[in-house]
Design goal:
The chain is an alpha/beta fold. The chain folds into 2 domains: 102 residues, Urease, subunit C, domain 1 (Roll); 300 residues, TIM Barrel (Alpha-Beta Barrel), CATH 3.20.20.140. 40% of the residues lie in helices and 21% in strands. The protein is built from 17 helices and 16 strands. The strands form 3 sheets. Strands 1, 2, 3, 4, 5, 14, 15 and 16 form an 8-stranded mixed β-sheet that branches. Helix 3 packs across helix 4, helix 3 crosses helix 17 and helix 5 runs parallel beside helix 6. The chain is globular. The C terminus is likely disordered.
C-alpha cells in the first residue's frame, strides 16, 4: 500500500518548503515527495493509492527529543520550588517509597502519549526501571533507552555494574529496529571514578551508546573543584571519602578517558572554552535542555559557542517533573530566545536553522541522521503534520517561521513513525489514552498526600 500525505506545505528541512505538497510513503520509507500534482503523476502506475489530506497544515520531519525521563511523568507539578539537591532527594524518596513498578510503567506510557501528541517521533530516555524502554516499544516511537547506574562508593562499583548488566541482559532480547538500549552512568557526584571506568568498558564491549548528566549546576561544580556543597556533604554523611580533582566536570570525564566513547553529555551548562575544546576533540555530543536548566536557576549553556566550534548539540525536554511539558517546539523556541538574548543577536538561529535543530540535528546527535531528520527519498517515514489554522497561527507568510515561532505541540494533527500512524489528530492509536488517564489520576491521588510527609 502506498500512502500519499498532502498538505498546504511540505517542509523537508533538506530543501526549501513545497507549497501544495505531498509525501508518498511505501513500506515505511519515503518513496517520493514534491508538489502534489507532480507526485501524483509519478505515482500514476500505482493503482492502490490511499490519500491522507491534511489541508491547511505543514508536513515536516518528526521531532527528535534527545533527553527525557518518561518514568517521572506522574510527578509533573509535584516537585516545585525546590533547590536542585532537595529536588533530587525528594524525587528519590518519593519514587522509592510511593511508586511501585506498575506506577512507573503507567508514568512512562503517559509520557509517551504526550510525546506522540506533540509530534515527537524519536526520544532518548534516561531511566532506572526499564519502564521507558517498554513504553517506547509499546507506543511505537523510535528511541534509545539509557539505563542509569548509580554508585558513588568505589567499594560498591562491581556490584553496581553487575546490577546494570542484569538489567541490560534482561531487556536486550526485546530491542527492536526502532528502540535500542544504552547505558547512563548518572553523574560525577553519583558515580565513582572506578564505576565510570567499568561502565565505559562494558559499553564498549557491548556496543552500547552512553549518556551522562554533566556540568549541570553550581553544586556539581563545587563538588568537583572544592569538595564542598550538598553533594560532598551527602557523601560524607554516608562515610564515602571524596578528594576533589579541582577541575571541571568535562575535564574530569576527559581525564578518566570517558569521552573516548563520544558520550551524550546532558546539560553542559557550565562548560568552559577549554571544555568546549575537549568536546570538539573527542566528538562528544550535548543534550541542551534550556527550560529545565532555567527552572533550577542553573544558567544558560553556551550552546552557541559549542555549535560554532562544531559540537553536535540536540534539544531535550528533560523530565516533565522539571520542565513541565514534553513539547520540542516550545523547547526550541525557548532555546532560540535565550540564545538571542544572551548573545545580543536578534538574527541568531533563524527559523530554518531552528527547525533543523529540532529534527536533523537531533538525529545527528543520536547517530540516526542516515535514517531520519529530513524528508528525503529512501529515508524512514518519520513525519509530523502541524495545523496552520488558528488565531495564534494566521496569517501564514512563511510556514517555517510560523511553525517555529507560533506553533506548539498542541497544533500537531498527525504523527507517523516509519510509516505507521501513531496519532491521527484525534487519539493516540498505540496506547489506550482513556484507561491510562484514569489510572494516572488515581496514582496522583495516592502521591499527593504522601508528598507532604516527605517534604
Amino acid at each position: 500500500m502506498t500512502i500519499l500525505y498532502t498538505a498546504q506545505w511540505v517542509i523537508p528541512v533538506a530543501g526549501v518548503p513545497i507549497q501544495d505538497g505531498a509525501v508518498a510513503v511505501q513500506d515505511g520509507k519515503i518513496l517520493t515527495l514534491g508538489p502534489e500534482s507532480e507526485v501524483r503523476a509519478r505515482l500514476a502506475r500505482f493503482g492502490n493509492l490511499e490519500t491522507v489530506a491534511l489541508g491547511n497544515a505543514a508536513i515536516c520531519p518528526g521531532f527528535v527529543n534527545v533527553h527525557a525521563h518518561l518514568e517521572l511523568t506522574a510527578l509533573r507539578g509535584r516537585l516545585e520550588d525546590l533547590s536542585f539537591f532537595d529536588w533530587i532527594r525528594t524525587l528519590t524518596d518519593l519514587r522509592g517509597a510511593w511508586m511501585q513498578a506498575e506506577d512507573l510503567e503507567l508514568s512512562a506510557q503517559w509520557g509517551v502519549v504526550e510525546a506522540i501528541r506533540a509530534g515527537i517521533t524519536t526520544l532518548a530516555d534516561t531511566e532506572t526501571s526499564g519502564a521507558g524502554f517498554r513504553a517506547l516499544c509499546a507506543g511505537g516511537l523510535r528511541g534509545i533507552a539509557y539505563q542509569e547506574v548509580f554508585g558513588p562508593d568505589p567499594m560498591q562499583a562491581k556490584k553496581s555494574l553487575a546490577g546494570l548488566k542484569r538489567r541490560i541482559e534482561a531487556q536486550r532480547p526485546a530491542e527492536t529496529d526502532l528502540v535500542r538500549l544504552g547505558v547512563s552512568p548518572h553523574a560525577v557526584y553519583s558515580v565513582s571514578a572506578l564505576l565510570f571506568r567499568l561502565v565505559i568498558e562494558y559499553a564498549e564491549r557491548q556496543g552500547l551508546p552512553v549518556a551522562i548528566h554533566c556540568a549541570e549546576s553550581q553544586a556539581e561544580d563545587d563538588f568537583l573543584r572544592t569538595g564542598q556543597g550538598p553533594f560532598a556533604e551527602f557523601l560524607r554523611s554516608r562515610g564515602i571519602g571524596w578528594t576533589p580533582p579541582r577541575v571541571s566536570a568535562i575535564r574530569y570525564l576527559s581525564d578518566l578517558n570517558v569521552l573516548r566513547v563520544k558520550p551524550l553529555l546532558i546539560h553542559a551548562v557550565r562548560a568552559t572554552e577549554e571544555d568546549i575544546g575537549l568536546l570538539t576533540f573527542h566528538g562528544a555530543r550535548v543534550a541542551h535542555c534550556p527550560k529545565s536548566n532555567a527552572k533550577f536557576g542553573h544558567g544558560i549553556a553556551p550552546v552557541s559557542r559549542m555549535r560554532q566550534r562544531g559540537v553536535r548539540v540536540g534539544l531535550g525536554t528533560d523530565s516533565v517533573a522539571s520542565n513541565n511539558v514534553c513539547d520540542l517546539l516550545d523547547e526550541g523556541r525557548f532555546a532560540q530566545l535565550l540564545s538571542r538574548a544572551t548573545q545580543g543577536d536578534g538574527q541568531m538561529l533563524p527559523a530554518a536553522a531552528l527547525l533543523q535543530w529540532m529534527t536533523l540535528d537531533g538525529a545527528c546527535v543520536l547517530g540516526l541522521d542516515d535514517q531520519i531528520g529530513t524528508l528525503e527519498v529512501g529515508k524512514d517515514a518519520d513525519l509530523v503534520g502541524i495545523s496552520l489554522v488558528g488565531p495564534h497561527l494566521e496569517p501564514v507568510y512563511d510556514p517555517v517561521a510560523t511553525v517555529t515561532t507560533a506553533a506548539t505541540g498542541r497544533d500537531v494533527v498527525l504523527t507517523v513513525v516509519k510509516g505507521r500512524v501513531v496519532y491521527d489528530g484525534k487519539r493516540v492509536l498505540t496506547l489506550d489514552e482513556e484507561q491510562l488517564r484514569d489510572r494516572l489520576r488515581a496514582l496522583a491521588g495516592r502521591l499527593h498526600p504522601s508528598l507532604a510527609s516527605i517534604r
